[in-house]
Design a protein that fits this description.
alpha/beta, Enolase-like, domain 1, TIM Barrel, 8-stranded parallel sheet, 3-stranded antiparallel sheet, 13 helices, 37% helix, 21% strand, globular, binds magnesium ion
């Protein structure tokens, strides 16, 4: 065989593996340039604790706070850096200490291919049970990294139309009538609001909001109602006042009461505290109409994508939510937002010391930046 023919056959075989057809000379040239640019190295993890300052005291049915601890992570590979974040509101039981402890056990240097995401995430998941915010910080950084290596945002890698990103709600915490009125007026740019309830002024909360605006509202009770008859009465009251759904009306343990309410309620009943992981989703059918997915609860973008897919098969509604977070974790969740019914992605707007620019809200709607990975850049200080 002449040397020239050998090269031709070799190139054809390689091309057949890649695309299943004879490559053009341009394809072959591109292949050579890909080979030259082929990256190498191992994954390097870095992290640091950070404290988010909230713009307002944040009050829900069970607690109030002015700060939220987070841990900021990076995964670096061959000069490219992916950003991640763990946010730890008190109710999920993670803290700076627990996340730093978890991350200290992670050895990503054993991996030399960041695209083996299934293997890397399975390794991370197997280090210790729980620790979902810590795991999410690694999942997000890995997604950001691989999206950047491919030069594409994740919404595009998933085949999603950014125009289908929904409007996001803005959250109004429980407060006095005067403050609720003020906050509602401040949120005039939003086309949906989320109202926290579950203390002793539920009717006042919605009535004050309605005295200012008629935009649709999500109601989040954070397990605050104990009595199902009262919950049903409130569901009718809220339905007549433009609410779209009620999130976690009663304690997650009151499964029979919640199923009873869901059967009778004129509004969809959505699980939040009751649902953390993809494994728990099957148990939600018949108890709730929908689920609130948050990256910090389920362990990141990979798990969230799987949960949305599964919830759709179960004909359940999907809300994508967040904690108080920087634009890092919020923009990661926003990549999935074209898939959901409702979005509550305002966590970055509730803090005064965000260090990233990412997803923005324009006329109430989520605007996904056309940047690779999760679409964030560090703010210039
Ligand atoms: Mg909630």
């Amino acid at each position: 065989m002449k040397k020239r023919d050998f090269i031709k056959i070799g190139g054809l075989a390689a091309g057949a593996v890649m695309v299943g057809c004879k490559p053009s000379s341009a394809d072959q040239a591109a292949g050579r340039s890909r080979a030259i640019k082929r990256r190498s190295g191992t994954l390097k993890l870095s992290y640091r604790p950070y404290e988010l300052q909230l713009r307002h005291v944040f009050t829900v049915a069970s607690s109030s706070r002015t700060t939220t601890p987070v841990v900021l992570t990076t995964i670096e590979y061959d000069g490219v850096t992916g950003f991640g974040e763990a946010s730890m509101p008190p109710y999920l039981g993670e803290s700076h200490e627990s996340v730093l402890n978890f991350l200290s056990k992670v050895n990503l240097e054993q991996f030399s291919d960041p695209f083996l995401r299934e293997d890397i995430l399975a390794y991370i998941d197997g280090i210790m049970p729980g620790n979902y915010a810590a795991k999410a910080s690694l999942d997000i950084a890995l997604h950001d990294l691989t999206g950047k290596l491919l030069g594409q945002p994740w919404f595009r890698l998933w085949g999603l139309d950014p125009q289908k990103a929904p409007v996001t709600s803005f959250t109004i915490g429980i407060d006095t009538a005067e403050v609720v009125r003020e906050k509602t007026l401040e949120a005039g740019d939003f086309r949906q609001l989320k109202i926290k309830m579950g203390r002793d002024n539920d009717r006042e909360m919605i009535d004050v909001v309605r005295s200012v605006t008629d935009v649709p509202v999500f109601v989040d009770v954070n397990q605050g109602w104990k009595d199902r008859e009262y919950a049903l009465e409130m569901a009718h009251y809220l339905n007549e006042r433009g609410a779209l759904f009620i999130e976690q009306p009663m304690p997650k343990e009151q499964i029979d009461d919640i199923a009873w309410l869901t059967e009778r309620s004129p509004l969809p009943i959505v699980a939040d505290e009751a649902l953390q992981t993809v494994e728990q989703l099957l148990g939600m059918k018949g108890v709730y109409n929908g689920i609130n997915i948050k990256l910090m609860k389920c362990g990141g973008m990979d798990a969230a994508y799987k949960m949305i897919t599964m919830a759709r098969q179960m004909q359940m509604k999907v809300l994508i939510g967040c904690m108080t977070e920087t634009s890092c974790a919020v923009s990661a969740a926003a990549q999935l937002s074209p898939l959901v019914d409702w979005a509550d992605l305002d966590g970055n707007l509730l803090i005064s010391n965000d260090i990233y620019d990412g997803m923005t809200v324009v006329d109430g709607k989520i605007l996904l930046p056309d940047r690779p990975g999760i679409g964030i850049i560090e703010k210039k200080s």
